[in-house]
Predict the structure.
Amino acid sequence: MSKLSFGLAVVLVVGAVWLALRPPVRGVLGSYSTCFEGRSESQQANALRAARALDGTVTVPGGVLSFNKTVGSWTADRGYVKAPVSFSGELLPAWGGGVCQTSTTLYNAALIAGLEIVERHRHLWVPSYVPPGRDAAVAQFDIDLRLRNPYPWPVHIEARLGGDKLGFVVVGRVRGPIAQVATETRDILAPQQLLHPDDHLPIGERHILNPGRSGCRVSVYRICLIGKEAGQRELVSQDTYRAMNRIVRVGW
């Protein structure tokens, strides 16, 4: 093979790789955003830091994106802070509090974009920033969100950060949205009130530690919007969320 022919072959190979990794048509397969209303500054900071770690991620055809592996550890040396996390209905500070809002936002964008859900977990209680059944809890190192790219071309994940919102856009070679998501609530579970005696409070005085939150049973479906499978309805999940009890301290 001559030097000219060899050089031409190298150029063709490099060009083919470049085209494979770069979608020739910028099509938004799906997007989703959540609001920071009611979230603490520390929760917002952790959620944004995790989102920046995901920004620009490329998943090859058939490849699986792991939220935990991509984001990494939620430790102080990586810029994370302690933020409120719910334990048994009471908010306590923990490293990386707020990161679940990032995984939840990405999960919803992935549903709309038609990505395959390999692993997803619900919270014990319904979170405030997304409808029931639409959340994706993560925890290091055994509770992950994993998404598979079912398309014959790469998909790109882009974060949208600004104002009081956190969003993700899934980009590929066709224009979406690929699907829409429908939620059906079957039962509402009412919270109970728990009274905790507190000798430090005047007799009869009450301090609310947690206002409580209703639980529910919910089914989530994904309806395909384009292609040969348009109109098909897929059961994504069936979840039961506990009622978060109302906790009140009472002076005795």
